[in-house]
## 1
Amino acid sequence: MKFSTSIAVALLLLFVAPAQAESEVERYRSESSNELAQARDIFQSLEKLAEEKTVESVLVPLNELEVVLGKTASRASLFYNVHPSQEIRDIAENQQKEITKLGSEINLSRPLYEVCKAVDVAEADPQTKRYLEHTLRDFRRSGVNQPEDVRNKIKLLNDELTVLGQELSLNTRKDVRSITLTSTNDLAGLPEDYIAAHLPDENGKITITTDYPDYLPFNRYAENDEKRLELYKEFKNRAYPRNGEVLKQILIKRYELANLIGYKNYAEYVTETKMVETAATVREFIDKVSAIARPRADAEYAVLLKRLQQIDPKAAEVGDWQKTYLQELVRKELFEVDAKKIRSYFQFGKVRDGIFDLTTALYGVTFRPWDTEVWHEDVQAYELVDGDKVIGRFYLDLHPRENKYKHAAHFDLQAGLAEKQLPVSALICNFPGKDDESALMEHSQVETFLHEFGHLLHHLFSGNQKWIRFSGIATELDFIEAPSQMLEEWVWNAETLKMLAINAEGEPIPSEMVESMVAAKEFGTGLFVTHQMFYAATSISIYDRDPTDLDLSKTMNGLQDKYSLFKHVPGTHMYANFGHLYGYSAMYCTYMWSQVIAKDLFSRFEEAGMLDRETATDYRNKILAAGGSKDAADLVEDFLGRPYSFEPFANWLKSDVEQHGGKRP
Ligand SMILES: [Zn+2]
């Protein structure tokens, strides 16, 4: 077959390396260009395919194309974010651009679309049918079946949107604002290290900027209400007014794009391939969640107001700039949470080993070192073993260093394919413990670790698919967080947390301490959820209409007053710096939606026990291992034995102090 010859040639190129040892840089450079050439080769052979269009002649090579592109894209993304060599990061950056270019050529290739459309899958297995169906759907959604002039317009709009999106985030990043304090007294309430890092200059002035390391602690701890408000206003006005116009342009162009492809508006377009399916479902969801959360939010609001009145007896309402500060006070005073004591139970090495042990307890799988090349000496490599079979491999790159990605994330490096290739993952985080494994972590970092590890397990367990498109975390965007969100429950339960929370004396964390932590965490949930629904309502409301006459200020302020208990603060323009309105577009509800699914999935563990092997095995088989082989709603139904339900989430939102054993007021 024409196509396999081209693969053979490309493979040959990969292995005919010079006899002398190449440097890592040169090797990566040549592998990258070979992979691109290989992908382009397969693509072009498919476009010109003259023989009969069958699963073997079209879908098998198409799958191979996705394998090659996926692998090179994953590695480029990882290296760009973490590799210590500047040269390799540069190659990776360029590789990402080349892949995007080739990707959009493929998505808009009419000849390739026609070739795929001609494949007859009437006799094929259900997975193959699903593969073709999703492929054609995505082609159609990129606009490939439109006439040429429309396709050209689509391409232009996509290019313009990329530029506008970059401008939007750059404007926010560049617009660092600040306030000036004239006395160290204005720093009262803040931690000592913060005060030490903000000493007065030669004129006795202290500058506090809107950058996160400055803003977040000030917003949480500063006793000076007036200054907290002043900084809040600056923060909520970053990139205003410039981004007002940029966001408006984005809305207009996305609306136009959706119309060209055949949708009423952009919200209809993005929701189509999600679990929510329609914009109307999103709206219903927002109103339903808001209504359930409201009583709890009202009760919590009353507690905050009472606390505020102890400071200012005349206070009649709690401002948006006061909520985090007051919440912190209430948590400390009512729930007696001593962060320092809690930390003493989280030694990095024990947490990592505990997460492995927890995985073994749940799924019976084990871990062993994987002897392989790594990109930095801090990186550890492991194999995931099931019985006596290796089923996946992964890297842990868990400590900060220069030029490394600053957040925590799971990177997939290779999706698994039944009998062909094993899945490979990497966890990239920034935890303490680089030189000393007994270094202490925050509980929130432990939660993050387990959350990201949940993505890793999802990726590795699902590596046994026939089609690469369904392998890995290849499921709907509003479902992908659910498994990891569910796993977070294991660090809020005394029994399971004890597996990884052991202090220097070898004592596990006391159950009462976990109970106070849970109570403190739960306080403010109603307020959080209602405020999130304000964001979600904004996101859907600016995308499910013709935006030509849309007044961003009026729309967003109105929705804040409707959904959140904290009113809009006059003179602020949050839409100018709320990047998710671009990134998530109409789907900001994603986070809460997957939380609903997570609570529903968890209900079976709650009933059977959090370490129940049978439930865990069933969960692994029906949810994790299934990858994207079915719609998420069907996977959930397979596991629960019924369609997904809102009930467990609603019950949790309505739940009160008795259920959590805390001291909720
Ligand atoms: Zn996540």
## 2
Amino acid sequence: MSRIKSSISNNKTSIFRRFIQLTFFVVINYVIIEWIFSINLKSFEVFVKALPVLNSPRNPLSKGAGFVEYIFYSIAKGEFPFFIIALFLLFILFTNRFFCGWICPIGTIQDGLSALGAKNKTFKKETHDSLLKFKYFLIVLLLIIIVPLGVTKTTDIAFHNDYKENLGSWAEQPVGFFSLSEYIFVFFPNLMTEIFENWEETALEPLFSDFWVFFFFLFYLIVITLAIFYPRFYCKYMCPFGAIAARLSRYSFLKLTRSPVRCVGRAECGICERVCPKQIRILDEPYEFFTGNGECNLCGKCIDKCPYNAISIRFG
Ligand code: SF4
Ligand code: SF4
């Protein structure tokens, strides 16, 4: 009994976080509630349409499921989304990457995958550092492709139309192909529906109908498999939201702090670093405030597991 009590107290943030994650998982994707209880909650969509923070993936407003999707979608349409960018900045300023650790459904799925029982692995520091840059490369690539599309809408409409035609569905869903949430909640269910509805005539044909359909199926299958062994693989190395949030994280009021008095250091302990799913070298970070170069998602694992209660969250 005392062992159970101590396990609960060692994991109290994690247990509470799981509850919040599962609640948001269902609320954000409330199509799940509709499916389970055979009800129609379409009228609820007006509330989430106003703020694309917690959008249902089927929301036609942003052609996607979040802040970054909405921002890129607007830029591609030749609009600068001041309001959403301001909201995004305020969101990070006050909550840092709390969304990633506690709310994002893709984070929840990855946490579930890494809890399946496979031994969690980490990359060598140099490999990890190089892989971290990949998500920034994706954002720069997106900007290079999408900004000219938006700018030419008002400056050179002939070029704009040609360019848009060449980009095809990419112009409509700029972040879609780089977004695991878009794949899991939109592309994949659509593909499965197509396969099962026409199973007798076409079997698996829709999966091989187009090079990109098969490519993304295989690609995200690999990403999901890697997330079983490498916790938060997609968040760390690929997520477009993660890339932008990581760069803004240092300006947030909400950060972690480590007590120089209580912490006994790596040689005698180092538990916090071993449990961190984001592979942050916590003990190389400054004591006063740290974000792990923007990677910390405030999951609280290090807080729960530190035997000396040396880590805490600070606001200000
Ligand atoms: S788990 Fe706590 S005491 Fe141990 S190294 Fe980390 S912060 Fe220091
Ligand atoms: S530093 Fe702590 S709170 Fe941040 S991601 Fe790592 S374990 Fe979670």
